[in-house]
Protein 1
Amino acid sequence: KGIVGWVIAHDEALVIPDVSQDPRFYSQVDERTKFRTQSVICVPMRIKGRVVGALELVNPDRQLLRDEFIVSVVEAYASLAAVAIENARLYDRLQLENQGYRRVLKGGETVIVGDSPAIRAVLEVIERVAPAVTTVLILGESGTGKELVAKRIHELSPRRDAPFIAVHCAALPESLLESELFGHEKGAFTGASSRKLGRFELAHGGTIFLDEIGELSPAIQAKLLRLLQFKEFERVGGTQTLHADVRILAATNRDLRREVEKGHFREDLYYRLNVVPITVPPLRERREDIPLLAEFFVQRFSRRLGIPTLGVSAEALQILSRYHWPGNVRELENVIERAMVLFRPNWIEPEHLPPELRQGEFGSAETDSDLPPLWQVERRMILRALEDTGWNQSAAARQLGISRSRLRYRIKKFRVPVRKGGSRN
Ligand SMILES: Nc1ncnc2c1ncn2[C@@H]1O[C@H](COP(=O)(O)OP(=O)(O)OP(=O)(O)O)[C@@H](O)[C@H]1O
Ligand SMILES: [Mg+2]
């Protein structure tokens, strides 16, 4: 799209002595420069022979540009600028590595990416609490990184070489969960053909992470309370009392105090678990972390999937920074992966992001649990249909099962942005 798009796509310099004659020129440029552009020189920026961007010179004048010499100066400048930008990017990357992310990117240690005051406060508590055997209750919305916090605590603890065992309490029905956690004796119930060790035994000397603790049944809550109080438990169907040497970390995305008030969760167990609470803040409350996280995920996926994406463009980053992220870091991770897999771009640009991120009114919605008004849903569907069909309104109307005139009416009414049909990117 536009002159820059053409130059990047064709890897060729472009000299336009009179932009009024060239439909590729974006007249909005003049709103920013506050002058009327007459002529343009645009040259590709290359790093090691690969086009990574373009440098565009807009000029209120015409004569100068006809000069071959000027074009070669601009080309020389663009190659210097490309190197400078590449260096700046490498510097950012180096900083990531200096912060200890290198081992993580190589798939070793867990690191919690982020530099916001909110995340730094979390990291500080993690470091303080890790060396002890203290029980930690990790709170936070879905996808904020609770499991990551648990793993990090284990890795920083003296138990780091012993097992870290995670149990997703909501994933199993009560009866199975009980024997999963505490084990069972042969013949404890139909189908128990042999003795089975529970996760508490398997985690002996190490750490157990009980995820979605708010889902535990009263019977299991009682057994867990006893384990926390006396370090004792029995296998299902067993009489022998066993001693547990495990550190317990628990997590939930529910408001556990409210579950206690409603009588769904034992108060005594709540206090035993809530010795040190760590609340992982939602991503929208630490937007400063978004650029660093995005860069981290770009690197991770370019390594893992072999996609040579360099980073996220300034415009795309602005969109990412404004969105309200109901699915938190996991959603950001998915958005980056999706963009890279579907488009394999040099830079992730706004058009590689899902449409819901690009809608201002969704971005500012603070009440994520509320359903959006119907018109917003309609608007979103229309936008998606237009994107699916390459901005062909007849095809989009067919896809939506409405007439073309009705579609046009709605586009106007909901102020859906329209682009010219045909090729994209
Ligand atoms: N600060 C972070 N740095 C790097 N990766 C992160 C960070 N926070 C979350 N992630 C990544 O986001 C994804 C979700 O994190 P995690 O599974 O720990 O969230 P959760 O809070 O346990 O979510 P849920 O409540 O849905 O189980 C994971 O892939 C994790 O690696
Ligand atoms: Mg989790």
Protein 2
Amino acid sequence: MTFTLGLDVGGTKIAAVVLDHNGTVVDDSVVPTDGHGISVIAQIWNLIDQKASSHALGGVGVAVPGNVDPSSGTVISAPNIRWDHVDLPTLIEPALRGSAEVSVINDANAAAWAEYRFGEQNPGDSFAMITVGTGTGTGTGIGGGFVLNGRLLNGATGAGGEIGHLTLIPDGEACSCGSKGCWERYASGSALHRAAVQAGWGPEKASHQLLESVGTRPEAEKLATTIQHLIRGMGLVAGVLDPTVIVLGGGLGTDPVFFDSEVAYYQELRITPPRSRPRLGKAHLGPLAGAIGAADLARPHARNRQCCPAASVMVNLHFGAQARQAPLGRSGVARHQRAHPGPGGGATALRRRRSTGARRRRRPNRRLPGHHALLVGFQHPPGPHAGTLQSRSQGGLLDASGAGSMRVTSHAAQQVKKCNPR
Ligand SMILES: [Zn+2]
């Protein structure tokens, strides 16, 4: 039986879950972390070693608190763990000794995917999750993740779903992002927290104390104001995305007092053009959601459904000076050629690509409009190895000289994906 490992990396802890082929959690653990750059990498290696010793891992998914380049798996920015342009797949795939592929995803998107797959009973094809933090610790703002027509929305730069900094109030309060009037300044636990502190509660548990004391008029008004701002933003989300259900997550979003109040005010939401409100739900999976989502997305069937983060890892490889341009097939679809095949995962991945190529040759061009690029040979683990990448429309090799890590354009990377939006 093959399992997948999901890791949710945060600034203070790393959650790990192992899913079996049915998507059932068979192993989970949480370890503290200091959130210091390279030491987090070492902890990820340790967790992989630990889980791989008791489960045959067929994939590893990592959720991170930051922007992830969807075509390469590179973590562009994750301030909480001090990562800046970290090529995570290349750093941790050697820990798997070629036995599994690594996919990387934003943590909020991973949590949304988990709730869509395993939390909400009737999520429909289009689903929105809005995470509302408590205003203390690391969960301070508003985050989100969306599934549209059955596929996770990653966006062009991996920032899809980052909705907390939409401008809700023009020229409103200054936000830590540098903008003004951001939604999370008015509708998250941070807003409730500030209101509670101004009312004289201590800063440690202010928002919870306010929620527990709701019933008196001043507290109720503060809560109502925060919820009304939240609903205003939810109306924008509903108007743009038209989801079947909006699920509230996060410490504040799932707080019983907050959620019950939210349900009451939600009945007033009007959407333009007029249509039914999306159903309002509460997240079910708790703090393991990100790890569960990352693990599920590392499973092959899920990669196909959400446009294959692992396929993008395929193109983020090391190329040597021997790299050369491969010829195009007669149909215009590139032929696969093995340049210098390597051991372990390289060979496995190559075989998988060959089968994909065979399918494409039977249906030339029909599912590959415009540009496409195909990887035809590589070695793993990384080193001074050879490989070629070709692009039909760009006319050949894409910067494959030298032994350093090569970044392929997202345009080319998209065409390597096994799934096709059409
Ligand atoms: Zn902001």
Protein 3
Amino acid sequence: MKIISIANRKGGVGKTVISANLTYELSKMGYLVLMVDLDSQCDLSKIYVQGDYEGGSIFHLLRQQCSLDNACLEVGENLYLIPGSRDIVHFDFRGSEGILLHYLRNERLEEVDFVIIDHPPALSESALAGFVASDEVVVVSDAEAFSVANLGQLLDDLAHIQKVMNRDLHILGILVNKIDHRRKLTKVMVEEVYNSFGNSVFRASVGYDSAIPTAIRKGVPVRKLAWHSRVLGQIRHLTKEVIERLGMANGNG
Ligand SMILES: Nc1ncnc2c1ncn2[C@@H]1O[C@H](COP(=O)(O)OP(=O)(O)OP(=O)(O)O)[C@@H](O)[C@H]1O
Ligand SMILES: [Mg+2]
């Protein structure tokens, strides 16, 4: 099992969109996948769970108010979700940063191939618990000037987290999302990311595409839209590169 954090302290860069779609593509390739919504905004959960949800959530699990089985909601073939909770901000992680690791490394999850954790837009206590639980981090960035300028600082912070909290944490790669080829400045920003971070940047990137907000509005991953969007090919490319970087090809790609 590989546990992967999808993270950036910056908001709105596409962490949830990438979490939702990477996960869905992995499940379609035959991997058993569990998503964890660690963000109190619960956006990932809104994509996969329609209407009011009263069942077990990450907060209930952390508070030992529900079992792991009850917190894992089946949301598709090969696809499970531990739903988010806005109450997670009230959970005191101090002294129990390893609590998520404890739950996710449970023998009841031994069949799971991938756990994908959608992070909140901060290096909050819950995010630290996410990094402690993870093997890998996918950093999602957009191609805006502030985002690119902040990437170096974020990698320094992740290096510190590695040093003091989880020596096994590895940066799988930086994904550049929302690339708008019509904007000259975007091209400059993307070049800057590749020049600054080299092979740490995924070869795959995701363009700015209205299919993404459309899919969010419908509460589906982009593959479920009625038409084949350009961005779907890019997400599949990313998924294959993730598997390739992990050396986990199953021949269904
Ligand atoms: N490739 C894309 N093309 C077009 N719109 C996108 C793309 N990626 C993300 N968006 C849009 O950007 C917004 C933010 O995306 P998302 O919620 O995934 O970001 P986030 O990093 O998870 O945000 P937060 O930090 O608030 O959790 C959404 O409205 C989404 O529709
Ligand atoms: Mg999000």
